[in-house]
Amino acid sequence: MAKLADSVHVKAIPSARKQRALRRTNVIGWLFASPWAIGLLCFYAIPMLMSIYFSFTSYSILQPGEFVGMSNYIDLFQDPLFWKSIYNTIYFTVFFVPLSIFFGVALAMMLNMKVKGMAVFRTIFFLPTLVPQVALAVLWMWLLHPNFGLVNGMLAHFGIDGPPWLGGEAWSKPSLILMSLWGIGQAVVIYLAGLGDIPDEYYEAAQIDGANWFQKTRKVTIPLLTPVIFYNLVMGMIGAFQQFTLPYTLTKGQGTPANSMTFYVMYLYENGFRYFKMGYASAMAWILFIIVMALTGIVFITSKRWVHYQGK
């Protein structure tokens, strides 16, 4: 019995040491993670929860406000500019996201070719993403100026009367889509990574079966690239609904002409920080959150039908 007790005591000592070491490791881990956790709590979680309460009040930053129930939401649905901002945002999303996927995949396939000096072309297409959005807006304002812009000047040499671009209600949003497509280099890099992950064996098998380039693209490249397309679709859709910097800089926050460039987040910002209707802006923020979450959920549900993963 004495020997058995000594054996249990000897085994208990390493076990206790392991537990102390494990606790010390956990404490060190939490200490390293604490800056991120504190930042998440203070700058995201708490403000988000507070905004729920503010959306039911007349809070205006300068005054605490009073509880008004659903008044902010009712006023929003009766606000014509609210609906206009939703229309502008959906218009931009519907056209920009598919076009960015199409041109992004096409550019990535071209940049994936085994051609000498391809690294230079990849760098050229990625460089626009490094330009700040404010500088990008200023650059395109000069390029698309209806009277003195470089684009209309080049069209005039061919006898073509250029459109008003940012100066016309019908052309303002297409102009913004054109500017945004100029900066799809980051998505192209992700598509290139996805193309590099496709095994060559699939193309060799297709070659043996007599498939041409188009058939290889349709039956091999696109299906195996769908996980990356799915990722860029979700991120692009979320980013499109949060469009702010370009239209705000181009119109100096006015949304001209005729509010055709008043996007949802712009109108939210104006209500919150220009008119100090923070309760109204908080209600807008939560409506945007619900819309984005609903659309993202739909994309995730439908992805089971068209996203194909290797080995599945």
Automatic annotation (TrEMBL):
Main location: membrane
InterPro entries assigned: ABC_transporter_permease, MetI-like, MetI-like_sf
Location(s) in or outside the cell: Cell membrane
Annotated keywords: Cell membrane, Membrane, Transmembrane, Transmembrane helix, Transport
Gene source species: Paenibacillus dokdonensis
Family in the record: Belongs to the binding-protein-dependent transport system permease family.
Gene3D superfamilies: MetI-like
Protein name (database record): Sugar ABC transporter permease
Domain ABC transmembrane type-1 stretches: 86-299
Spans through the membrane: 27-54, 90-111, 123-143, 176-199, 220-241, 283-302
Membrane topology recorded in Swiss-Prot or TrEMBL: Multi-pass membrane protein
